[in-house]
Every structure is written in structure tokens, then in C-alpha cells.
Amino acid sequence: MGSRLRPEALARAASRHPWRTLALWAVLIVAAVAASSALLDDALTTDGNFTNRPDSVRARDLVEQRLRGPERDTELVVVRSPSRSVDDPAFRARVLELQGDIAGLGTGVVQRVGSVYQLEDPSLVSRDRHATLLPVVMAGSVEQAADHIATLRGVVDRADGGSGFEVLLAGQGALNEDFNTIAEEDLRQGETIGVVVALVVLVAVFGAIVAALLPIGLAVLAIAAAIGLVALLGLVVDFSFFVTNMITMMGLAVTIDYSLFIVSRYREERRAGHAKLDAIELAGATASRAVLFSGITVVLALVGMLLIPTTIFRSLATGAILVVIAAVAASLTLLPALLGLLGDRVNALRVRRRSSLERERQGGIWVAISRAAMRRPVLSLLAAVAFLVVASTSVFDLRTGFAGVSTLPDDFASKRAFTVLATEFSGGLTTPVEVVVDGDADDQAVRQGVERLRALLAADRGFGPSAVEVNDARDLSVVSASVTGDPSGAAAVEAVTRIREDYVAEAFPAGTPAKVLVGGETAFNKDFFDLTDTYTPIVFGFVLLLSLLLLTAVFRSIVVPVKSILLNLLSVGAAYGIIVAVFQKGGPALGRSLADLLGFQQVDAIEAWLPLFLFSVLFGLSMDYHVFLLSRIREHYDRTAGRHEAARRLELVPAELARVAAEAHGGGAAAGPGAGRAPRAGTRGGTGPRLIHHPRRVRGAGLPAGPTTSGLMGSRRRCRGESS
Predict the structure, then answer these.
(1) Which CATH number fits domain 432-519: 3.40.30.10, 3.30.70.100, 3.60.21.10, 3.30.1330.60?
(2) How many helices (H) and strands (E) does the chain have?
(3) Which end of the chain is less crowded, N or C, counting CB atoms within 10 A of the terminal residue's CB?
(4) Does the domain formed by 74-170 have CATH 3.30.70.1430?
(5) Could you give the CA distance from residue 579 to residue 689 in angstroms, rounded to a whole number?
């Protein structure tokens, strides 16, 4: 049974029974599309949560269970007039009219809406009394409320500017909608650019349209299959709505790589005089085997993200793993079947007589680089390493955080609304910090603790006025205080740290009969930052160890895996350095120039989830190339028993092929989850360093030099003491 699943056996069976293989894949794709159409919407969520229970989650659960019920989304409508105050009858009439329009949306959209004229809450009036807030409690859960934000915004937009009043919408729902709008626009543009770039590169490398369309077609099928699997798994667990974009990015990247290597190897074997079916089987025994090992390497790297107890990381990791598995399956079965049907017609619709691979074989830049590297291996290796180290230097300035409203472009209404809140009210009114005191509210020590805490908050300029809520059972008290400035900003996070580390201990000394937890959106962010700090070394160590074990098993060597991992770590470090230089404020002038040229917005902090996410993705995709190239070198080494001759093979197909794969890969990376105008642009910048700088190109010098300086298979030292 095992022999039938070997890559060459699968290639042989698929190429000899192509119609059966195509029929099986047609059934799978139809089922995947049907599952996606029926189930995908219910499988995706905009909500992200921890799968463990940090303080912010436990605080939220206590408030929901014993005070307010299920969490609701509260939006704030800002009404402002430069000439009238809230005491003016015309101002009052305008606010009450708007309040009626919002209430008129119905209880399916809005649960309730208030105003200062009914609630008599002075915190709803600005300091200069020329602006007021209408708190709008949205109907349903937070996720259900997200579906109605556009409806509420429509009422606000129609009222804006009427009778000289400025009307704006602020709140977490409105902010999320703006971020999602930016992300979705740029993702659609990125996916289009990615496919076009990949197709142009593939046409150039193959010199024929049919051969170029094969990798794109297989990528589409692998993506469809993976999305169908996500839809089915969504019956059991929810996925972040970004998972489809992750699948698209990874699907384009790896499927193009895998197809490119297999199709190129098939054409090479045909040029060597082998019959069609024999050429397919030979490609299966060599290129397809490398694809299988490469896919396993990528999956192992992505498994690292499953260790992180958040739904977003686990959603992205699962989607990426599924599409890599689908890409490997399609490359090992469907692609040989298509080659069996097409035969030499894979070269149909030629756009030029010789492909770039054929021209490179006659001599080119990569041949010259490889020869130079082998003539001076130590110097070449040092130069490659030095280049990557220099590119990595900016990583030491990395600052992480979350995209807050202050990072939005100035033309967004939610950004203008936040500016009003920050200058005339308190920027954190929509997302206050909540200190949950789980204990008898009538106990003297608890009451005194609450009062001491409020006094400490009042003396801290990082917070606005505080308020206290007590549940009916009087066994839970909640002290709420707005944070000044951006609730997602560094200052707000530091304010939460002060509450947790200083104020709670001072207000509720040991022996107080209460459990105190700090919750709210900013506390949630703080817990996420702490979680990523905790899991970064765990994920790094896990991925590196699994990669070392796999490469050791594949190449039966210690030296080769260690060198590969070190070089890939340098490449990942270079990608991090590029992200910091291009996307983070305060970097080098070259980084600012690149950001301006590419239309990216520089921000104060890189998204906190990005470094861990990129490590798993980039390390897996980096090892992808190493497995391909080293497998080809190993093949020639076994034939010639000479490391110089084996490394020289990089002068021919593999080096140029890796370069082309990297450029096509960069097209796939352009489809990654990111936004050109928002800080999430760092994602595409990180997954596409092949376009900006492409550390892998350094391997044109570094990788040929490696086998030459130390011996291809670690000077033939094998783990089990075997000889070559």
C-alpha cells in the first residue's frame, strides 16, 4: 500500500488513467463549491477571542453573567455645532429629531438610543457645550450588530451637514467597519495583482501560455478545495473571516511553486529524450518527491501557529495548512494527469521560441553568480550573510501594538469622530476600562477598596471620570473609566498596566474579600500582547526543532539542516527588518521613501500578531526553496559523488527556477491579508520581501557556496553512521 502512495507511483497511476483522476477531482471541487456556497457564511466570524481565559476574558464573562447580560455594541453619535450650544432650542430639536430617526430603524437594528435631554448625564456634553453624544445600543450580539452598522451610518451620513450641524459616528463597530473596508478593498486589488504578476512571470519562464496557465489553474482548484474544507469544518468551529484571504495567498504561492518545479522537470526529461509517460514518472520520482517534502516542511512550520491560544492564529493556521495539503495533492495527482493528456501540447501557444529557463541554461546572470560563488565560496557566503544581517538591523527597533483609530486615513468619518471625542470628551468613552470586583458590595473593605481605586483613577491623567455599577445581587461591582486618547494606543495599554500592577494592589490589599479583574477592550489588547510575548519563543523553538528533525530525516545529515535553518532565520530576520524600515515610523529615510513609493502608510507600531504569523509563514516558504534546491543537488551528488559537480548544477535549471518561483511567489504574496492604507499593510510587506528585496536571491551566492565550503551532505557524515 505504501509503495502505491509514493510520488512516482501516484504520478504513474494518474498519467495512465487521466480521465479517472480528472473525474475524481471534478467531484471534489463540485462538492467543495457546494459546501462553500451553503456553509461558508456561517463558518466565518469577525470576532477574535482567546481560547484560554486571561483576566480580560474572565472579567467580561462575569459582567455578562451577573450584571448586563450578553455583551452589546454601543456606538456614539456625535452632534456638534460651531455656533449653537446644547442649551439652544434649535440644538435640542435637532438632537431629538436625530434620536427619533435612529429609533425609527426598529428594534431589529437598535435596541435603544438616548440623549442628554433624557438621561441628564453631564458626561454626554462636551467641555465647551457645543457638542453632545447620543449613545446607541445596537440590537443583538456584537457580531450581529456589525451587520447593522452600515444602516446606522446611513442615518448619520444623511444628517451630517444639515442645518449647520456636524454629525459623526464613533464606536468599535464603526471603527471595525472602516478597517474592514480598507482591508477588503486592498485585498481585492492585491489578489488581482498577484494573479496577473504570477501569470506574466510564468509566461516568461515557460515561454508558452498553456504551460503558464497550468500552475494558475491548479492554484484556483487548491484554493477552492481548501475553502470548501473550511466551510465544512465551520460546522464545528468558527473561523476568522480573514482565513479566505490567507488561503488565497498561500494557495497561489505554494501551488505555483510546486507546479512550476514539476512541469519544468517534465519538460526537461522530455528534452532528454524520454517518452511522455516515462518523463512524467521521472518527474514524479524527483520533483514530486521534493514537493511532498516541501509541503510537509511548510505544514510543520504552520503548525506552530496552532499552539497559540487565539482563534485568529488558529483560523489562519488551519486555512493555510488545508490549502498546502490541497496544493500538494493536486500537484502529485491532478498535474500528472493533465500532463498525461497534454503531452507536448503543454508547450502550445508559444510567445517566444525559447523560455527564460532555456536561455539561462545557455548562460546568464545566475550561471555567473553560481560560478563566482563556487570560485570564492567563503567570500560569497560571508557577503550573502552580511547582506542579510544588514537588512535585519532594523528589527531591533520593532515596536508592536494594535491598529487603533489614530492610524486610519484622515478622510474617514470614524477618524474625525475620534478626534472630537479625544479633544472634547474622552477618546475611550466607547471602550472604557472596567475593573470588576467580585465580592460583597456591602462589605466595608470592598466599599473602601472601590473608593480608593476611584481616587487613584481620578488622580491619573490617563483616565477620564469613573463610574460604579453594582448588580442586583450586590455581589459584583464594576468600576468603569474611559482612557484618554486612542484606546488601542501605547499610552492606554500602559494605563491598564498601572491599574493591574499598582492601583489594584493599593486599593485592595491582601485580605480583602474580593477577586479583582481588569477588563475592557484595552485590557483585552494588553492580554494579547502578553500572550504573544509568552508564545514567541515557544513557537520559534517548536518550528525550528520540527524543521531540524524533518530535514535530518530527509537528507540524513546534521550539517545541511543546521545550515539551512540558519540561512532561513537570516532571511526571516531580513523580512522583519524590511517591515520595520518601511512600515514603522522613525525608521531610515530609505524605508520612508519605499513606503511613499508603494503607497503604504507608516504607523507607530507594527500589528502585534504579525511577527509570529510571519515567522511561521516565511520560515515554511523559505524552507520550501531550500528543499527544492538541495534535493536537486543531492540527486546530482548521488550520481556524480562530487560536491562541486552537484553544486554546479545550480548554474542550470534550479537557480533560475528558484528565482522565477520567488518572483511568481511574490505575486501570490501581493494577495496576502493586508491593507495599503492601514497598518495591516505590514502583512503583505512581510510576505512579499521577494518583491522589495527578496533575501532568497542571496542564495544564488550563499547556497552554492554552502555545499562547496562544507561538503554537500555534511562531508558525508550521516546521522546513523552510513556512508553516501
Answers:
(1) 3.30.70.100
(2) 30, 12
(3) N
(4) yes
(5) 9
Place of cell 550573502: 384
What are 576-604's pLDDT values in tens digits? Answer: 888 888 888 877 888 888 888 877 778 78
Question: Do β-strands 476-483 and 514-519 pair in parallel, antiparallel, or remain unpaired?
Answer: unpaired
pLDDT of residue 675: 39
The greatest distance separating any two alpha carbons of the chain, rounded to the nearest whole angstrom, comes to 94
How far is 208 from 576, CA to CA, in rounded Å?
36
1-45+208-350 architecture in CATH? Up-down Bundle (1.20)
Q: What percent of the chain has pLDDT over 90?
A: 31
Q: Where are the alpha helices (DSSP H) in 160-171?
A: none
Distance CA 240, CA 45 (A): 5
**Residue 458, φ and ψ in degrees, nearest 5:** -65, -30
Quote the pTM value. Answer: 0.78
Domain boundaries, the chain: 1-45+208-350, 74-170, 360-409+522-719, 432-519
Specify whether the CB–CB gap between 377 and 465 falls below 8 A: no
Q: Could you tell me the CA-to-CA distances from 39 to 31, 188, 231, 244, 621 in Å, in that order?
A: 12, 22, 5, 13, 30
Nearest to 621 by CA among 225, 247, 71, 253: 253
Contacts 24+ apart (CB under 8 A), 65-69: 66/471, 66/473, 66/475, 66/476, 67/469, 67/471, 67/476, 67/478
What pLDDT is stored for residue 688 in this prediction?
Answer: 39
Q: How far apart are CA 202 and CA 199, in angstroms?
A: 5
- 717 pLDDT more than 50: no
Superfamily grouping for domain 360-409+522-719? Multidrug efflux transporter AcrB transmembrane domain (1.20.1640.10)
Q: What Å distances lie between residue 226 and 300, 400, 529, CA to CA?
A: 17, 31, 30
Equal fold, 1-45+208-350 vs 74-170: no
Number of other CB atoms surrounding residue 444 within 10 Å? 9
Give the Cβ contact number of residue 315 at 10 Å.
Answer: 25
* Nine cell digits for residue 452: 480608593
Structural element, H or E, at residue 168 = strand 166-170
* pLDDT, tens digit (0-9, with 9 covering 90-100), for 274-283: 898 999 988 8
User: Which whole-number Å values give the CA distances from 488 to 28, 170, 407, 430, in the listed order?
Assistant: 44, 14, 10, 12
Report the distance separating Cα 511 and Cα 605, nearest Å: 40
- Cβ(260)–Cβ(665) below 8 Å: no
Closest to 576 measured CA to CA, from 537, 607, 530, 535: 607
- Cell 425609527 belongs to residue: 104
Can you tell me the distance from the alpha carbon of 379 to that of 385, in angstroms, rounded to the nearest whole number? 10
Ranked by mean pLDDT, the top range of 31-35, 187-191, 340-344, 464-468 is 31-35
Mean pLDDT of the region 364-384: 74
